[in-house]
Amino acid sequence: RMEILENGKVTFTYITNQDLKDVNAGVGDHEGLVELGRDIEGVEVSVFIRQKEDDENTFKISLRSNNYVNVSDVCLMFGGGGHQRAAGATVQGNVEQVKQKVINEIRKVLK
To answer: Of 2, 54, 62, 95, which residue is the least packed, with the fewest Cβ within 10 Å?
Structure first.
């Protein structure tokens, strides 16, 4: 489930606990998914969110960027952080709420 947003500059992918259960995924099987979005031509920011195992209303977000967006600054808005090109945070809400919160912050820094 990957969406391409913001005129091709952002990819958004998510996975829920039910998704993991449906495919019998093991711990860490989702690692690297955030990188896939960044590899698409024209994409500046790749967003991957996954539901926390112990709280269905909390998502771990992972952001990656290619050239100019400092994703650490975006994640700081949610109490997270990291590096300029790779960062993360934890955000409350359902998939759609978390998506909108994150995209709204990214939109502020896209050229």
So the answer is: 54
